[in-house]
Design a protein that fits this description.
This protein is of the alpha/beta class. The protein is 35% helix and 18% strand. An 8-stranded parallel beta sheet has the order 1-8-7-6-5-4-3-2.
Length: 236
C-alpha cells in the first residue's frame, strides 16, 4: 500500500484568505500553514528559474518530515532544447535539488512537454537514458500522438511515470508506467460525483504504490479543499 500525496500547484495565493488561509496570516507563513492541511505541493516556478539553495532550505524548514515537493523541470530542458542533448543540464538540475532529496522531501520531477511537440521515440529514448535512477521522474505529454504503447513500454523500462493530466482540452490515459502515479487535475471545478470517481482511482492506484495528485490552483481555494477532502476521505 502506497501513500497518497495530495495538494495543489502552488501555495502563494493571497486570494485564498480567509477561506483557506487565516485572514491575518503573513504571506511568508503560507507554506507552513499549507503543510498543516496538505502533504504535498507542485512547484511550478522552477520552470522559469532554478530554485536557489537558500529558497530550498526555507521550504524544507517550513514543512514537516512527511511532506513532498513535486518540482517542474526547467523550460531549458523541455521547451528550449525539447529533450535533445540535455544530459548535462538535466544532471545539473537534479543536482540543484540535492538538499531536498537528502531531506527526503523531494517528490517526482515533472517534465512537461510543449503541446506542439509530437511523438518522437528516438528523442524519448535519448532523454530517458540520462535520467538519474535515484530520483522519481514523470512526463506530461500534451500532444495525443504520445499516447501509444511504444511510448509506455519505454517509460516502464525506465520507471518513469506517465503524468495522467486532465484538462478541458485533453485527458491522458490512465496508464501506469512506474512504481508510482502522478495525476494533474486541471479542470476549474469538479462535481461531487467527479471527486468520488477521482478518489476511487487514487485509492485503487495506491494499492500498488505512492500516488501524487495535484489540483489546479485558482483565485479561489477550491483546489486546496478538493485535495484536503481527498486526503481525509481516503484515510477513512
Amino acid at each position: 500500500m502506497g501513500n497518497i500525496y495530495a495538494g495543489t500547484s502552488g501555495w502563494a495565493y493571497p486570494g485564498w484568505k480567509p477561506d483557506f488561509y487565516p485572514a491575518k496570516l503573513a504571506a511568508a507563513k503560507f507554506l507552513g500553514y499549507y503543510a498543516t492541511r496538505l502533504n504535498s505541493v507542485e512547484v511550478n516556478m522552477t520552470f522559469r528559474r532554478w530554485a536557489t539553495q537558500k529558497l530550498l532550505d526555507r521550504w524544507i524548514a517550513a514543512t514537516p518530515e512527511n511532506f513532498k515537493f513535486a518540482i517542474k523541470a526547467n523550460q531549458s530542458i523541455t521547451h528550449i532544447k525539447r529533450l535533445h542533448d540535455v544530459g548535462e543540464i538535466t544532471r545539473d538540475f537534479f543536482a540543484s535539488l540535492e538538499s531536498m532529496q537528502a531531506s527526503r522531501k523531494l517528490g517526482p520531477v515533472l517534465f512537461q512537454l510543449p503541446p506542439y511537440l509530437k511523438c518522437d521515440l528516438a528523442r524519448l529514448e535519448e532523454f530517458l537514458a540520462v535520467l538519474p535512477g535515484a530520483a522519481r521522474s514523470a512526463m506530461e505529454f500534451r500532444h495525443e500522438s504520445w499516447f501509444r504503447e511504444e511510448v509506455f513500454e519505454r517509460m516502464r523500462r525506465a520507471n518513469v511515470a506517465l503524468c495522467e493530466a486532465e484538462s478541458e482540452k485533453l485527458k491522458a490515459p490512465d496508464v501506469a508506467t512506474a512504481d508510482f502515479r502522478y495525476l494533474r487535475l486541471r479542470k476549474e471545478s469538479y462535481s461531487s460525483a467527479e471527486r468520488k470517481a477521482i478518489r476511487k482511482t487514487v485509492e485503487g492506484a495506491a494499492q500498488a504504490g505512492d500516488v501524487f495528485v495535484y489540483f489546479k490552483h485558482e483565485d479561489t481555494a477550491d483546489g486546496a479543499f478538493y485535495a484536503e477532502s481527498l486526503r481525509k476521505d481516503s484515510a477513512r
